[in-house]
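lol forgot to send this yesterday, sorry. struct tokens for the thing we talked abt
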């Protein structure tokens, strides 16, 4: 047997975080979840914040559990949801609390930015899908909502970098994450200071971009003392969770589409260069940075967040249900033709998702969905129809014929969703692995530490290590 390599991956989703121990030996990876914790945003007044210090506390709890294993752990890395950030003052302190991207302070900012930089020009340079929560829009809103904090800030750290800073004392900005915020020149793959200045944002917020697979540094002595974990390097990977998920996707074909299916649905293709055409602008597709110089050309679609919140509301007001219960109820529903538009703003952060789904169906002349199954089917149909439309538009924009789709992430555990997706896109669907973001995180750690040579080698390891399933259109 060959040498065993141990790494830690922190993976933060929009509703939970976890720390995973990776064991790499004889060309295969095994994963063990050591610590899981909720990631619940907190409403204070009218605004929506991340519980940042609680999340960092949970990270240290995880590190203590890892230390208790008494294993020679080489490194750790962090990936999170996109666009959000913390602001640092001249003394190196976090000022204010990071605002959740679902906060509504950015409503109307797109129109204001459009007066400073025409939107077609903004897209031609950044290549990023227009969404209210893009980092550029959040910073513009911060100037008005939190002017004292904004003016005192001297540096911006995106969320994975903020947690990395707490662990190492090192500040950095990682390329794949920075690319999500509409702040980079998509072709040059660096900060677009022209756009930044024209929008009135401070240039000094931004540091030199770090590539995925870069060793950042060691744990601070006080972190080592508190957790008992020593000798561990902190590495910048594809720190946007979708960048890591795509890095681990064992594509069935070079022209396959990918779907990272979780709280959000990120559906697109991996390309060598950004697509900045009139068609991609009109269809509002995004060009985000990938690992190893790739571009993730994709569409952001509101995903299983809607189903997660339906379950939460049903448990609060009706009865306790699991996701398998929802699947069973959906299959048994009398009416299966209800449908929502998952990207409607009403589904972004409502107080009651169940009420919003029912209201949408009623307001669009579909009648009233009755029971858990009919409400859930409205969500399933909305998501999968959007997947079908997105795949067709990808083919139009890129001029490529997509033969199949690879799906990774927690959503693949829902076999009904996978089958309905194959039906909607009219193509074979290949699912797996579940832990896409974690595995992409680990692959880039192994590469940074010299254990593997290429991204493709990492994807081959994923193929050997984890089962994949196929769904054909019915």
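and heres what i got for the seq, position by position
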């Amino acid at each position: 047997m060959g040498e065993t390599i141990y790494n830690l991956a922190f993976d933060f989703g929009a509703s939970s975080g976890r720390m995973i121990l990776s064991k790499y030996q004889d060309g295969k990876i095994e994963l063990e979840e050591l610590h899981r914790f909720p990631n619940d945003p907190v409403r204070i007044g009218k605004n929506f914040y991340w519980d940042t210090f609680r999340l960092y506390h949970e990270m240290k709890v995880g590190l203590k559990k890892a230390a208790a294993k008494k294993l020679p752990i080489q490194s750790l890395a962090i990936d999170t949801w996109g666009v959000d950030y913390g602001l640092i003052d001249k003394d190196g302190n976090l000022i204010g609390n990071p605002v959740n991207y679902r906060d509504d302070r950015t409503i109307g900012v797109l129109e204001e930015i459009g007066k400073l930089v025409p939107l077609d020009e903004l897209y031609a340079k950044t290549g990023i899908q227009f969404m209210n929560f893009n980092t550029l829009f959040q910073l513009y809103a911060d100037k008005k909502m939190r002017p004292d904090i904004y003016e005192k800030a001297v540096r911006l750290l995106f969320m994975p970098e903020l947690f990395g800073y707490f662990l190492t004392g090192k500040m950095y900005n990682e390329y794949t994450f920075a690319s999500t915020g509409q702040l980079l020149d998509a072709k040059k793959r660096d900060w677009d200071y022209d756009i930044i200045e024209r929008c009135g944002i401070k240039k000094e917020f931004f540091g030199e971009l770090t590539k995925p697979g870069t060793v950042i540094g060691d744990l601070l002595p006080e972190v080592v003392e508190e957790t008992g974990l020593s000798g561990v390097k902190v590495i910048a990977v594809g720190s946007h969770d979708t960048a890591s998920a795509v890095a681990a996707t064992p594509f069935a074909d070079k022209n396959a589409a990918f779907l990272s299916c979780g709280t959000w649905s990120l559906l697109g293709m991996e390309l060598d260069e950004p697509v900045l055409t009139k068609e991609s602008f009109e269809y509002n597709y995004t060009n985000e940075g990938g690992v190893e110089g790739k571009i993730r050309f994709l569409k952001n679609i509101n995903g299983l967040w809607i189903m997660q919140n339906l379950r939460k509301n049903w448990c609060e007001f009706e009865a306790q249900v699991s996701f398998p219960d929802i699947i069973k109820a959906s299959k048994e529903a009398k009416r299966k033709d209800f449908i929502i538009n998952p990207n409607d703003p009403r589904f972004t952060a409502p107080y009651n998702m169940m009420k919003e789904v029912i209201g949408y169906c009623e307001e669009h002349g579909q009648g009233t969905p009755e029971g858990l199954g009919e409400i859930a089917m409205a969500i399933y149909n909305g998501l999968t129809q959007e997947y079908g439309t997105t795949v067709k538009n990808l083919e139009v924009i890129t001029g490529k014929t997509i033969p199949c789709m690879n799906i990774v992430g927690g959503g693949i555990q829902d076999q009904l969703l996978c089958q309905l997706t194959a039906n909607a896109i009219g193509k074979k669907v290949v699912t797996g692995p579940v832990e896409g973001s974690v595995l992409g995180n680990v692959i880039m750690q192994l590469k940074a530490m010299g254990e593997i040579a290429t991204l493709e080698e990492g994807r081959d390891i994923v193929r050997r290590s984890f089962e994949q399933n196929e769904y054909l259109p019915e």
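The chain has two domains: 5-236, 251-431. anyway ping me if u want another try
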